[in-house]
Amino acid sequence: MENIIKQLTDLKNELNKPFPYKDTDKIQEDFRSKFLNLSEEDDCLTGDFNTYCMNISGTLNYVLAGKTTKIPKSQMEFLQMSFFDFFKQYKFFEHKICDYQDFFEEYNNFEVTRKLLLKLIE
Prior knowledge:
Elements: H1 2-14, H2 21-30, H3 32-36, H4 45-64, H5 73-79, H6 83-86, H7 101-121
Helix pairs in contact: 1-4, 1-7, 4-5, 4-7
């Protein structure tokens, strides 16, 4: 358990990188036709990715502050899923995220953090 806390503490610095706006814009440009097929409600990649990241960051803050029992149930439910599992409308570019270095790095850092949080909390 202490090893996981140490890993999470180290990862916290990695999560404070600038948001990958250029890559989210490029993804939307490169997959323009797919995004045009989404409803207005489902076409919010930047906001949805930000929501995913903030949920993990918020949960991490609870854990590092020793307040695991105070994490809201809805936050824990959201933590159970990867970005592409929760926001299924973006699955069409999941296999290409490695083409977008900043987005890919950010996604991987948050996914590693999410999985460690789940391991620690469960």
